[in-house]
Amino acid sequence: IYFFIMLLILIKIGFWETSLLKETIIWFIAVGIVSSMDAVGTAKDIKYFTNYVKKSVTILTIFQFVVNLYSFSLMWEIIQVFIIIVISWFVVVMDVKPEYQDKNGKTAIKFLNTILAIMGFYMLYHSIKMTMDHLDDIVISELIKAMVLPSILTIMFIFYVYLLVTCATYKQVFKGLSFKKTIDDKYRRYLKLRIFMFCNINLNRVNNFI
Asked: Rounded distance, CA 190 to CA 136, Å?
């Protein structure tokens, strides 16, 4: 829901258009879903998010700029996006499932990431080669939008990821309270309220409280 709200905001201000659909889908699969699953259990304070934004924005901006210099044919674009979505989904699922944390599982994850890397390098090579042959066909305004879109989406989405991680951390606190048999039931809700009033949405404070 939050992702669609982000798109509605970008549409409302006149930035997002259907020509950016491919970039949006790739970002959602490769960054949106992955960052959400990776942050839960990993992020402990605000530094995690600031570092993540700095790293993601830099890498994505450079990659997106080069790749969008010249696009593939429509059919290859569709096939390419589908392959990236499927492989990225497998990587995300295998990365969090306990049964894939052994040596074979890690080898499989590394193999899938290698395929994604090869596709990425090929996309870079193709875009640079085709751009040199068709410099007059490049629309600068569309190129700039495609270049900055991933960075904008990452910055907007990081607020959702932060709240997601904070809620997950609060669940740990409240789960601990439910196991305390010495606490009267009528005080549990009051304690939860007081804890929330003390910690607010400060992730660092919630982790310190734990």
From this structure: 67
Length of the chain: 210
State the Cα–Cα distance between residues 191 and 174, nearest whole angstrom. Answer: 9
Residue with the two structure tokens 């606490």: 183
Q: What is the CA radius of gyration of the chain?
A: 21
Given a contact cutoff of 8 angstroms between Cβ atoms, the answer to whether 46 and 203 are in contact is yes
Q: Give me the helices (H) in the chain, please.
A: 2-12, 21-27, 34-39, 46-67, 74-96, 103-133, 140-179, 185-199, 203-209
Decide: 169 and 206 in contact? Cβ < 8 Å. yes
Distances (CA, A) of 138 to 61, 64, 120, 133: 18, 15, 21, 11
Residue of higher predicted confidence among 13 and 55: 13
pLDDT tens digits for range 57-70: 665 565 665 555 55
Which residues fall within 8 angstroms of residue 196, CB to CB, at 6 or more apart?
A: 170
The set of long-range contacts for 114-122, using a CB threshold of 8 Å and a minimum separation of 24, is 115/87, 116/84, 116/87, 116/88, 116/91, 119/80, 119/83, 119/84, 120/63
The C-alpha atoms of residue 158 and residue 181 are separated, in whole angstroms, by 37
